[in-house]
Amino acid sequence: MNNQDLLYHYFSNSLTKEQELAFKDLLENDAEFKAQFLFEQNLKEVIKSNEIDTLKAKLIGFEKDLATTKSTKTEYFNTEKTKPKTFVFHYKNLAIAASIALLMGWFGYHSFFKTNYSGMYNDNFSVYPNTVYTITRGDTQNSLEREAFVAFESRDYKTTIEKLNAIPAEATKEYFNFYKAQAYLNVEDTANAKRLFTQVVDKHTDFVAESIWYLALISIKEENKTQAKTYLENLVGNYTYNQEKAKLLLKELQ
């Protein structure tokens, strides 16, 4: 892995333990790497301090300014052969540096402006608990429904799906689709999860608000910002379930 990759994984909080050790070693012993790290760290702070649309407009202006600038001075000096090289960056300001980063293809611009859908999904997803079927140790009943929810609470989602699917149509209950959708979502079958959550919402059965929440998360996972915002706005406007979380997600999706 090259130095640029290490910087990318550092700023996206995805360094492995081995990469973290390599990163720390470079930071302590490689002056060039440290200079680039500090530059990109400052750039990140600049970008965070501004609204995205405003900063985009500024960067366009800075690019035009930069095009008229004859040169940007970067001094390298080494006062003694035994001392490591040190880099001194002379930029008009960090905003100009942001434009330079954009033009040079450095780490900054693209990753900062790209919505972190995966992070949003992982930060907000949790399995909805079993609130419909009480399982007790002394229970001698051996039904498909009991086996399904024992599997669900054991996080054996494939068995949950198999058992719920095996229940005859005349014995199904309204909440089956919601928990089956949960199970599908946890085995990475988002298509079936989406289909079943949508059925719950369309039929106005139990867990409508909860299903809208999970449909919003699926849309985020699929990087469908428009659909995610529609679900979240529905949740905020009509339900109390996870309303504050939905508001925060809407802000992140602006």
From TrEMBL:
SUPFAM superfamilies xrefs: TPR-like
The protein's name in its UniProt record: Tol-pal system YbgF family protein
InterPro entries referenced in this protein's UniProt entry, alphabetically: TPR-like_helical_dom_sf
Keywords, sorted A to Z: Membrane, Transmembrane, Transmembrane helix
Entry keyword annotation includes Transmembrane helix: yes
Entry keyword annotation includes Transmembrane helix: yes
TM stretches of this protein: 91-109
Biological classification of the source: Bacteria, Pseudomonadati, Bacteroidota, Flavobacteriia, Flavobacteriales
